[in-house]
Amino acid sequence: MQTLEHKVYSEIIMTRVTVPVGEDIGFLPGTEEEKMTPWMGALEDNLDVLCKTDNETGEWGRAATDGLIRARIKVKSLNFMRGRTFINKFLIIDEAQNLTPKQMKTLITRAGPATKVVCLGNIAQIDTPYLAEGSSGLAYVVDRFKEWNHSGHVTLQRGEHFRLADYATEVL
Q1: What does the angle CA 146 – CA 149 – CA 151 come to, to the nearest 5 degrees?
Q2: For 5-35, what is each residue's pLDDT tens digit?
Q3: Which of 141, 117, 139, 110 lies closest to 126, judged by CA?
Q4: Higher model confidence: residue 61 or residue 151?
Q5: Which domains does the chain have, with CATH numbers?
Q6: What one-character DSSP code corresponds to residue 133?
Q7: CA dist 34 to 25, 40, 52, 99, 111, Å?
Q8: pLDDT per position as a tens digit, 75-104
Q9: Whole-number Å distance between alpha carbons of 17 and 137
Q10: Does this model's pTM top 0.90?
Q11: Which of 71, 76, 117, 154 is the most exposed place for a label (fewest CB within 10 A)?
């Protein structure tokens, strides 16, 4: 809404760490955005939900809405953030619990004038072998920004996962 209708931000930039859960599949061909596609499954899932419109708009209306939203969202690799400055952008850092404090610093210090940074993550879902609750970049940022008047932090009581995912988060 603030990007498309009110034009508060010129675009949405989404990034996340590209550390595989299992074996690495090697180098991927294509542009930066094409290489990031396998890492952005969660974004795709959420866009599918957001772009569902009522039956009155029909297939063409859904496709137009989907295309408009996707045109404003740029997927960028964490690996190419050094030296950049984002001006008038809405930067979303997804899966922030799997970033190190230094990676979080690299990303957040890219914010220029009129840019908002939102970090999404769940400390209970850290699955990077060398990180723990105390060493996660997400926990680091929450702790360092808690006294700053221009920041906010929201902890959800529960996620929108199904019973199996919720149970796994608790016991594994």
Answers
A1: 60
A2: 667 898 888 887 765 555 555 566 666 566 6
A3: 139
A4: 151
A5: 11-171 (3.40.50)
A6: T
A7: 15, 10, 24, 22, 24
A8: 777 777 888 899 999 999 988 999 999 999
A9: 11
A10: no
A11: 154
